[in-house]
Amino acid sequence: MKHGARHAAFLTTALLCACGSGSTPDASGADTALVCHSDAECDDGRFCDGEERCVDGECVLGALVLCEDGVACTTDRCDEARRGCVHEAPDGDGDGHMPVDCGGDDCDDADANRFPGNVEECDAGGHDEDCDPTTFGFRDADGDGYPDQTCCNTAPDGSELCGDDCDDGLPAAHPSEAEVCDGLDSDCDGLIDEGVTATFTRDADADGHGAVGGETRDGCFAPEGFADSADDCDDGEARAHPGAVEVCDRVTPPVDEDCDGVANPPSLCNCDSGDTQPCSLPGVCAAGTQTCVDGAWGDCSIRGSAEVCNGLDDDCDAVIDEGLTVSCFIDSDGDGFAAAGTPSEARCPNPARAFVGGCPRGTTDRAPLGAANLDCDDADAGRVPGASEVCDGVDSDCDGAVDEGAALRCFVDADSDGYGVGSGGDVCPATGTHDCPAGLTANDPSALGLDCDDGDASRSPGSAERCDGADDDCDGMVDEGVKVDCFVDADADGFAAAGASATARCPASPSVPCAANETARAPVNAVSRDCDDGDPTASPSVIEACDGVDNDCDGMIDEGLTVMRYLDADADGFGAGLLVPTCPGEPGFAGRRWRRPRAHRLRR
Fold it and tell me: Which residue, of 283, 418, 457, 472, is most buried by count of CB atoms within 10 Å of its CB?
């Protein structure tokens, strides 16, 4: 600084001090130290939070940068790196589809698993994955060509659209199937065995004929003690029923064996003594003869024995094996269960096979009524009600569900980083494990986050963001938190000037994050701003030197280094005029002031 300039600065400083400009009164009238002298001292280096200004010695915050453009179909935000507004079209759920009200085709921009083209899933909750209310996902576990009725979707009017297979574990149950008597709704009309049941009547004497007007029951098979006819004229006498052979009884009252209303007709009871005829009784008795005694036919020479289950009429009552057979159903795979609609056959019981009611091999006494007794595959003994479900793509326990409890919900994970994509599906575990097979993961993207790049294992919701121009942590942002704001530093002294522009960069190294002639130090206040970005010797880190320059950028020049001396224009060691601040050793100034010799002083 030249002497005249230094002297002028000194005078200015003196005036400011005299006027009190270095302080401002507060509300009480007391002076408080100024916080700032210029806008540059208030600038925090951030764009989006508004411009900071120095007003009456205090830093005042400006208004936030508002980017709202009034357009409903854009998302507006302030980008600090770009130092400006960014307008983006919205995709609220990140599924790659714009909302309908913005010209897109996404019917629900808050649900990432709902957009056109997505695979519709079978679910009873009515979730519409593909934005098409007419689709509800197709699941056909029993392969009968009809979708499971638990696959549903909700139409725009609120009604529910569902599949029409009422039992997706039974191929013989679907809307076009004829109703059969099996305790199930075979034709899926909501009714069970309608129009196909039979009426059975109480058969007290077990002759295969129910009593006229007796107790009845409806069902698919005759219950124990019931018969499929109601024509027995005497349900307490096993020898009497339609179809039995009338005989001439020597009992009182006589028995009307054939239920024709006439007991002991004359044609059978009037004869000449001593005559003989073939026995009129059925079964084994038919081989005997009868002899006429006193005008009536006597007993058959062959007497019937107690009925045994042998396919013969042992007691000669025209009924074979009555009350002794068991109802058996075909059981092709020998697992103790019959398929739906299997008819029964009367068989003599085998004591050695008591575990199936004595039914012979290849049959079972378990009636195929109701889901708990139906064999869903009578060619596979491993598939029966109550079996343990195994993951094999079939309904092992015949409950209508496939692989339930045995399959895993797995999601595509092509890069095997543990993060999946898509809506997932039921998959059998890898052999010998309880884990999803290779290329799949059990981690649900809806809980852990969607993998934004399933071809790169280093990019997933669990990855740390790297400065590489990619969204490594799959949060929809690129290089967030890892880029460094680098400010222009023209003199490369590590400090940027107030208002210096910044560029967001990936650090070259932890120790040298910015390029040459840049600094990562933001010029936010007096201790971090360069007061002269063209002079590397002037910055807040430089020690002040007495040279007429603000070396340490504190707003003061040569503070604490100057001495007060007089101007010594003739360099004779004596100065004149006012004391002025000078640097030690600076020529043209003297520490002593010239005084007139005492002898030359004027006298009064």
Answer: 472
